[in-house]
Design goal:
The complex is a heterodimer.
Chain A lengths: L1 H16 L2 H4 L8 E2 H4 L3 H13 L2 H5 L3 H4 L5 E2 L8 H5 L8 H24 L6 H26 L21 H18 L13 H18 L4 H15 L8 H5 L10 E5 L3 H6 L4 H4 L26 E2 L1 H6 L5 H6 E2 L1 E4 L24 E5 L8 H10 L1 H4 L3 E2 L6 E2 L5 E2 L1 H6 L9 E2 L18 E5 H15 L3 H16 L6 H4 L6 H12 L5 H7 L3 H8 L24 H6 L11
Parallel strand pairs in A: 7-8
Antiparallel strand pairs in A: 2-4, 3-12, 5-11, 6-7, 9-10
Chain B lengths: L1 H25 L3 E9 L9 E4 L5 E3 L5 E6 L5 E5 L6 E4 L8 E3 L9 E4 L2 E4 L7 E5 H7 L4 H5 L6 E5 L8 E5 L12 E4 L2 E3 L10 E7 L2 H4 L10 E6 L10 E17 L7 H11 L2 E2 L10 E2 L3 H5 L20 H4 L8 H8 L5 H5 L3 E13 L3 E13 L5 E15 L4 E16 L2 H6 L23 H4 L13 H6 L1 E18 L5 E20 L13 E24 L2 E24 L15 E25 L3 E12 L8 E12 L11 E15 L10 E10 L2 E8 L10 E14 L4 E13 L2 E5 L9 E5 L2 E17 L3 E18 L7 E2 L4 E2 L6 E5 L1 E4 L5 E4 L4 E5 L5 E4 L4 E4 L2 H9 L6 E3 L14 E6 L4 E11 L2 E11 L2 E3 L1 H6 L21 E3 L5 E3 L21 H7 L2 E3 L2 E12 L2 H5 L5 E15 L19 E12 L1
Classes of the chains: A mainly alpha, B mainly beta.
């Protein structure tokens, strides 16, 4: 018994030695605490990568926020993504696409604020930390730039949120623009960011470009003419740092040359080889750029690419192209190849043209010539060039009227939408990724957010709005047109535009930037949203559809109802909702 | 020891002799002698023997004998002894009176297991419900949970799955949390564990459920939703006489089969529905009546023919007409052939089985002078009603206790359970009943057809098919889905009694749980068909948890005062590791046994988590004269889940009880016991994840910079590091009443529980982090309720005993506060202040648009509405107008046609809108639950029935959602009665295509191909699956026979009881799906209602 008492005494002794508080500190062996990990140099770097990655949800998924409800796109076999965003009539404050976009922007803001929060605590190379801080500040303001374009004034959150926060009043448009401009100008002037970076990092050339756009947008939105000149100066600064539009439009968009284009100032980065090497499933890290803007081309085993069957190029867009414009061929899959012409729907070879000699022995299943090259004579010439491949080709001209894939006459719009019309409209090639397997989210092409081609048009618009310098306006528009018509054999006078006005600039933006993520914001900025939808959007009803229950027009997106509900600041809704 | 016992006997004899001396000297009247025995003819020593109405009394001696002098022959001798029903006999002419005492079923001497100790039920101040081993074993259920159903009022237990090893939902006195429900605390032999599924019901000694806060407060931190104390069997008592080993066998075998099948469509009924679903408005007459055609007859019937007309211009396709189209009998599709022959496949039978159930439990227990022991081994098999559903379990049990010396006792117990589950295919179970009678399971060679409702199976050459759904039999055959689990519960204790009444006890209780969940799907299954490769997934869990309790007990009896004090220091630590791996494409089809051979390892993950708890607790019981009782407890808990400044919480409670029946003024003949109890206490909950108060680097993202991938990590969210214990305070008032020789017993309680500072998910402003959710101590919920249990012995004669137990409980749950009080409703989560947690909210279905006249107040200005006769109508808002046909009004006002559902326009504004026309439609909490059980013992026969009722609750039924849904037209539905407008094309029951002559009125909409959701639109889709699932269920009917002792002794058997048991024989409900008890279960978990027939034996050597 003494032994037992002895043991009990030892146990009790041990017990009293053991601090309860230590015992109650749970150890987390499978995860590292944020405060520990992000204050190391390696951990901080992963946090910066994390912040960059927050750009992906904004652009890697639906195109509804950028392309729906504009003049350039209409329904295909399926409706345009998010009917409300496309027809305005059904756009309400509970719209889930808008809510997701708004939320994703603030997720990005939180991530960049988190970088800035830990930047002050990290132990490591101070210069590098300063650089990353500047990158994070750029990205943060970029998220605000998207927000201010879509929503006008929004709450400005500059600190990393790590507590309960429910009271965040909306800032005015002016305050949001000022915040963006101040931040970008500060890092442009006071950081050691590189002038240029083709690997996706923030660089000063891109900042110049975005400052130009921010001033331009602010000039329109705040009705501040002085901003236009500043915008033009920044655009010219960005142009001055580049090498012009030296590549052809086709080279610019040719697959597997991402990260080599001097023209690209800033792009969201994707890389298949290193992703797969890192063991990531293809669809987990890709985007679905190439999936949009395409009529249905059949299922997995039919050999064509996977398409959304929606957001087709509108007749308006097709009719903008002029003879000699290289951008038609570089933007669309004019010729759709198959290996067995008598079974053309099931033996597709969509990506064959990207492989050297890849089309040898194949047949052209469908040919989609532009309106100006679709006379019988043109077609006959085209067929004669390669009779073996082209004799049995079904030719569907991209004009009105046209023919259905079953070779019956129909309107262009019917070719888009009627009777389950696979193959009715040419597919968009700008984002084609021949290495991708069939499916959504499998494209590993970068998503370009800024390139010089646009910078010139920004400069042109800025000078136009600044007034008094039409020469510069025309000069910059024609830089873009020169590249488009390069090699066409046309004399400059045959394609140049003189005395360009805002509609001309928007037409040029349509041709140059079609399917890139700008159209809705372009129309909103230039106050053409209502006019162009009435004129060109086939699924838009009547002008009154823009008017909300309050009698005002829906010129911004609604502040998501969920955001209004959760915010105790009692923020006002935008007009029209 | 032997010496001590003898000494005791001597003292007792002396004492009795002294009593004799007293009695014989004061009165010299009739001397009555006799013996007091119990029903098993064992003598009862120490029983009180009194002459009623006098102070004359004595006690029985060690052999149960007594001698007493009665004043006259009319005197009544009353004998009583704790644990037995009192008995009275008039002296009369006899001088020898023998008493046989009946055991008292509601024994006041019953010992109840409370936290860290036991207590006589008589002294209890709190509200505790108990279930005895007999009640558990008699139910014949596979799980302890099921056997507890209906046994204790206020404890609601509902089976949430019909699958083998399926789970239960349990709630004690309502829902205490919003969102994160912790559930009650399970304490098995003193050890807190997460569930009790692995225990064999035959190994359970008793279950005590602590309901009020004064009882649960001793478990403080984790007890706000009640405590279920399970005591497993062990050797009896220490320091008693040596007993010879008792070998017991409890076992049953049974068969379970499906029953009470819902009214599914027959083949023709299905075809009629399908036909209706293809009808389309031919031209819109503009008045809302339907002018339908069915343009798609070929598709409807899956036929390859063009229908022709008979003499009356009616298209005909019925069995009598097949030969019109196929004179040679060739060219028919398989479906046509089935229809022509009236042949159908009964998929219900194809996917289910008659399931075997068995449980065998053998145990040995006994004691020597200083030790006792109990060993057991059990085997259980519980097949499910679906093919391949099966659960097997082996239990091993060992318990031993020994008195080492006068001061020290020690013991240990070990409970080991190995469970193997097989579940076939969840997809198969989900899809099983979705096959209509013309789905063809096998081809002519007997091979299973991959798509039994696909065009290939149906013999269609036009692409017409019912569905591309995969054959559930193929899914079941080609899937291996199951788990292996090992649970080891143990404890070792050392008790030290240095001085009388003081005990120090230290107990170490390890708990080990390991499990492996596995899933293998061949390429040819629903989930793998598109990929064309097989896949396997294995998840392993390794849990170790230990609790070290150190307890100090001191009791003191001074005169009329008795004290009992308990102090506790306890530590608990829990660690768990998970490892998951998921791979695809196994070249050698090695299922999940060779994960390394996967062509693609899709993911592998591991996780570690731990938490710890330190507790101090104290309890003081005081009783005065057994009349007034006070209990006070306090517990302080520190949890690792909270940050340092917030981690300690203290949980006090107090209770008083008054045994009024002990008062002189209440000494009556009929009242045996009356006790009033009042308690108040606080308990808590730390129901958040481990590490919930700090962020970690997780949330992996990838970002490529040029050709190199950047690995991105961010914080896993926003946390609230200031969260702390949520607390529930409860006041309980109870009364225990026992009268008429304990033949009527009532235990009743009323209570109010308020849970405050609930740990709830709270959404931040979207702008604060982008839609982040954090946990916060917000929200307040109350539960108010009433419980009563009535036990009666209705008939009691020598041969016949009839007893009845009725229990009833009602609870009202209400959200008192949300998000700190600013918000009165949260539509996203459907939380409304003033309403219970768990409400259903939506549009209001108000019947079908008919062709009957209607008078309405116009909700808006209506012009140009066309009436039946072609006239137009114009009316202003507020006008009261009569329409000849309801559809004229509904079409004009809402655009709804005849046969469409009417959704109530609550604000009468002429439009159905989400924000204005939805309301609370029902609540999930039952308005009351109750149970009824009765037992009849006649000589050696016993018969009992138990029933359970759950009434007045709504459920969103996945079953109804599918089988009464209008969206699908190719698969099985219930045979429900839908409205059919006059004039629409129909398929008659003879198979003719005809025209509906007269309107067929019914409560449910007409299925068509018009607008969304089979013609019913989107509003109806939101609400039709919300149903009242109230039920009364007869859980058991048991007939047993106890073999007479005489026959047994020769066999060396001391006790043999044989019984037959029917589980779930009857269900009374309006719910039309499978079983109302799991009406809310997902389709793969909820299967057919079952009935089980068992035969069992209880045997003791």
């Amino acid at each position: 018994m003494k032994k037992i008492l002895f043991i009990v005494a030892i146990l009790i002794g041990l017990l009293t030695q053991y601090s309860c508080e230590d015992f109650l500190d749970a150890e987390n062996k499978s995860k590292v605490d944020s405060d520990i990990y992000f204050t190391t140099e390696a951990g901080f770097e992963t946090l910066v990568n994390f912040a960059y990655a927050k750009l992906k949800p904004l652009y890697g998924g639906t195109i509804a926020m950028f392309s729906s409800g504009t003049d350039l796109y209409n329904a295909g076999r399926g409706d345009m993504p998010d009917v409300g965003l496309h027809n305005y009539k059904d756009l309400v404050s509970t719209n889930s696409t808008v809510e997701t976009f708004y939320t994703d922007c603030y997720i990005g803001i939180q991530a960049t604020n988190c970088v800035l929060y830990y930047a002050d605590k990290v132990i490591g190379d101070e210069d590098l930390v300063e650089l990353r801080k500047a990158e994070a500040r750029f990205l943060r303001a970029y998220f605000y730039y998207e927000l201010v374009q879509h929503f006008g004034g929004v709450p400005i959150v500059k600190d990393y949120v790590n507590q309960i926060l429910v009271d965040l009043p909306r800032a005015s448009k002016e305050d949001v623009f000022n915040f963006i401009i101040d931040e970008w100008e500060d890092i442009l002037n006071n950081s050691s960011l590189p002038d240029k970076d083709l690997q996706g990092r923030v660089n000063k050339q891109a900042i110049n470009h975005f400052l130009a756009k921010a001033y331009l947008t602010a000039g329109w939105d705040l009705d501040n003419p002085a901003y236009f000149t500043t915008a033009a100066i920044y655009a010219e600064a960005a142009i001055a740092m580049g090498t012009g539009l030296d590549e052809t439009f086709e080279q610019l968009w040719w697959p597997s040359k991402d990260n080599t284009h001097q023209e690209v100032l800033f792009a969201i980065q994707y890389d298949r080889a290193s992703s797969i090497a890192a063991g990531i499933v293809e669809e987990d890290n890709g985007n679905n750029q190439q999936f949009w803007y395409g009529q249905y081309l059949g299922g997995a085993d039919q050999g064509y690419k996977y398409t959304s069957s929606t957001a087709l190029p509108s007749l308006r867009l097709m009719m903008l192209f002029q003879p000699g414009d290289s951008r038609y061929k570089a933007s669309f899959m004019e010729e759709l190849y198959c290996s067995n012409i008598s079974d053309r729907l099931l033996t597709g070879k969509y990506y064959a043209p990207y492989i050297t000699g890849g089309t040898a022995g194949l047949f052209v299943a469908f040919y989609y010539p532009p309106w100006y090259a679709s006379d019988p004579a043109d077609i006959a010439v085209w067929r004669a060039e390669d009779p073996a491949a082209r004799t049995q080709t079904i030719v569907i001209p991209m004009k009105d009227p046209t023919i259905h894939p079953d070779e019956l006459p129909c309107t262009y719009y019917e070719a888009c939408t009627v009777g389950n019309a696979p193959f009715g409209i040419t597919n968009v090639t700008k984002f084609d990724d021949p290495e991708s397997t069939f499916g959504a989210n499998k494209c590993y092409r970068d998503i370009v957010l800024a390139r010089l081609g646009e910078t010139y048009l920004v400069a042109a618009e800025a000078w136009l709005k600044a007034g008094g310098n039409q020469t510069k306006v025309d000069q910059y528009v024609n830089v873009v047109r020169e590249r488009a018509f390069r090699g066409s054999g046309l004399a400059p006078a045959d394609y140049q535009i003189m005395g360009a006005d805002i509609d001309d600039i928007l037409e040029e933006r349509a041709l140059e930037l079609a399917f890139e993520k700008f159209r809705w914001t372009d129309l909103r900025r230039t106050q053409k949203l209502v006019e162009y939808n009435v004129l060109y959007n086939p699924e838009f009803g009547e002008e009154a559809d823009f008017t909300g229950p309050d009698g005002k027009q829906k010129l911004y997106r609604p502040i998501p109802q969920a955001a209004l509900n959760l915010n105790t600041a009692g923020n006002a809704q935008n007009d029209g909702y | 020891m032997r010496i001590k016992e003898n000494l005791f006997k001597q003292k007792l004899l002396l004492f009795i002799a002294f009593l004799f001396f007293l009695s014989s000297n004061i009165w010299a009247q009739i001397i009555v002698t006799g013996t007091v025995v119990d029903t098993e003819n064992q003598s009862v020593a120490g029983a009180n023997v009194v002459v009623k109405g006098t102070t004359i009394g004595t006690m029985t001696d060690i052999d149960g004998k007594f001698s007493i002098s009665a004043p006259s022959s009319s005197s009544v001798i009353a004998v009583s002894f704790i644990g037995f029903l009192p008995q009275e006999i008039v002296v009369g002419n006899s001088t020898v009176l023998n008493f046989t005492l009946q055991t008292d079923a509601t024994v006041l001497s019953e010992v109840v297991v409370i936290g860290y100790g036991t207590m006589k039920k008589a002294d209890l101040t709190g509200s505790v419900g108990s279930i005895s081993t007999n009640a558990i074993v008699a139910k014949g259920t596979a799980t302890l949970m099921e056997s507890m159903q209906g046994e204790v009022p206020g404890v609601s237990i509902t089976q949430n799955s019909s699958r083998a090893g399926g789970g239960f939902d349990i709630q004690i006195r309502g829902i205490q949390s919003i969102g994160n429900s912790a559930g009650p605390l399970y304490v098995v032999d003193g050890l807190v564990i997460s569930h009790i599924q692995m225990l064999n019901p035959a190994d359970i000694e008793r279950v005590d459920i602590l309901k009020d806060a004064s009882s649960t407060a001793i478990y403080g931190s984790r007890a706000s939703e009640g405590v279920i104390m399970v005591t497993t069997k062990s050797g009896k008592g220490l320091g008693m006489k040596a007993t010879k080993p008792v070998i017991s066998y409890d076992g049953y075998v049974g068969m379970r089969q499906k029953t009470r099948m819902p009214d599914f469509q027959t083949g023709m009924e299905f075809m009629q529905y399908r036909f209706a679903r293809y009808t389309q408005a031919a031209s819109n007459p503009g008045d809302g009546s339907l002018n339908y055609i069915n343009p798609n007859t070929r598709l409807v019937l899956l036929l390859n023919y063009v229908p022709i007309l008979d003499a009356n211009s009616i298209q005909q396709v019925g069995p009598d007409y097949w030969n019109i189209y196929y004179p040679s009998g060739t060219g028919m599709s398989n479906v046509e052939r089935l229809m022509a022959d009236g042949e159908e496949y009964n998929w219900m039978d194809l996917v289910t089985q008659k399931a075997i159930q068995q449980n065998h439990y053998i145990s040995v227990s006994g004691s020597t002078d200083n030790s006792n022991y109990h060993f057991g081994i059990g085997y259980q098999q519980d097949e499910g009603i679906f093919l391949k559903d099966n659960e097997n379990r082996i239990n091993l049990k060992a318990a031993i206790q020994t008195q080492i010396n006068k001061m020290i006792a020690a013991g240990m117990s070990l409970n080991l359970a190995r469970t193997t589950d097989e579940w076939g295919s969840d997809t198969g179970a989900d899809q099983a009943f979705y096959c209509n009678p013309y789905f063809i399971p096998r081809d002519s060679e007997g091979n299973l057809i991959f798509q039994p409702g696909g065009q290939g199976a149906l013999g269609s050459t036009t692409g017409g098919q019912f569905s591309s759904q995969v054959n559930p039999l193929i899914d079941m055959e080609n899937t291996i889905n199951g788990a292996q689990k090992l649970n080891i519960l143990g404890n070792v204790y050392l008790a030290f009694t240095p001085i009388k009444n003081l005990t120090l006890k230290t107990t170490l209780s390890p708990n080990i749980a390991q499990s492996k969940d596995f899933l293998y799907e061949q390429a040819l299954t629903s989930s793998r068909q598109s990929k064309g490769t097989d896949r396997a997934e294995v998840e392993t869990l390794n849990m170790f948890d230990w609790t070290w309790d150190n307890q100090l007990n001191y009791s003191l009896n001074v005169g009329d005062h008795s004290f009992n004090a308990m102090g506790l220091f306890s530590m608990n630590k829990y660690t768990r590791e998970n490892f998951d791996i998921y791979g695809e494409d196994f070249p050698a089809n090695t299922t999940f046994y060779d994960m390394g051979s996967a062509a693609v390892v899709v993911s592998s993950a591991s996780l570690y988590t731990e938490h710890s708890l330190v507790s101090y607790a104290g309890r003081l019981n005081y009783a005065y004269k057994g009349k007034y009782m006070v209990t006070a407890t306090v517990r302080a808990d520190g949890s690792s889940r909270f940050k340092e400044d917030y981690r300690w919480g203290s949980f006090p409670s107090a209770a008083i009880a008054w045994r009024a029946s002990e008062e002189n003024f209440l000494q009556t003949n009929w009242l045996n016991d009356l006790k009033l109890r009042l308690s108040y206490g606080v308990s808590g909950n730390n129901n958040v994840n481990d590490y919930a108060t700090s962020t970690v680097a997780s949330s992996i993202e990838y970002y490529a910079f040029g050709p190199s991938i950047g690995y991105g990590l961010g914080p896993n969210g926003i946390v609230n590091s200031a969260i702390q214990w949520e607390k529930t305070s409860e006041i309980d008032f109870g009364a225990d009443f026992s009268a008429f020789e304990n033949r009527v017993n009532i235990v009743t309680d009323v209570y109010k529980k308020v849970s405050d500072g609930l740990l709830m998910d709270r959404k931040l402003a979207v702008e604060a982090g982008g839609g982040a959710t954090v946990i916060d101590n917000i929200g307040k919920v109350s539960n108010t309720g009433f419980e009563i249990m009535l036990n009666t012995v209705n008939v009691k004669t020598r041969d016949l005993i009839w007893k009845t137990t009725i229990s009833f409980a009602t609870n009202k749950n209400s959200i008192e506060e949300l998000y700190g009080g600013d918000v009165t409703e949260d539509l996203g989560n459907l939380w409304f202040v003033g309403q219970p947690v768990g409400v259903f909210y939506g549009y209001v279905y108000d019947g079908v648009v008919t062709d009957k006249p209607i008078t309405v107040t116009l909700p808006k200005d209506i012009t140009g509405a066309h009436l039946k006769d072609g006239t137009t109508f114009s009316g202003a808002m507020g006008d009261v107008v009569t329409f000849d046909h309801a559809y004229e009004y509904y079409y004009a006002a809402y655009g709804w046609t005849e046969g469409s559902p009417i959704m109530k326009d609550l604000n009468n504004d002429g439009a159905i809108t989400g924000d204005k026309d939805r309301k609370i439609l029902g609540i999930a909490e039952p308005s009351w639950t109750g149970s009824f059980s009765t037992s009849l013992t006649y000589k050696n026969w016993d018969f009992s029935v138990t029933a359970y009722a759950k009434q007045g609750f709504m459920v969103k039924s996945p079953f109804i959602n599918r089988y009464m849904g209008y969206s699908d037209r190719g698969r099985m539905h219930l045979n429900w009665d839908y409205y059919i407008p006059a004039g629409v094309p129909i398929l008659t029951s003879e198979g003719k295509v005809s025209v509906q002559q007269e309107t067929h009125y019914a409560d449910l909409p007409y299925p068509t191909n018009a607008v969304g959701n089979g013609g019913t639109g989107t509003f109806y889709r939101d609400v039709y699956d919300l149903v009242d699932a109230s039920y009364v269920k007869v859980k058991n009917i048991t007939l047993g026979y106890t073999v007479p002792q005489k026959l047994l002794t020769r066999l060396g058997v001391s006790d043999l009881h044989l019984y037959a048991n029917i589980l779930n024989p009857f269900v009374f409900t309006k719910y039309v799906g499978f079983d109302p008890e799991w009406a809310g279960a997902s389709r793969s978990q909820g299967g057919p209602s079952t009935v089980t027939y068992q035969f069992g034996i209880n045997l003791k050597f």
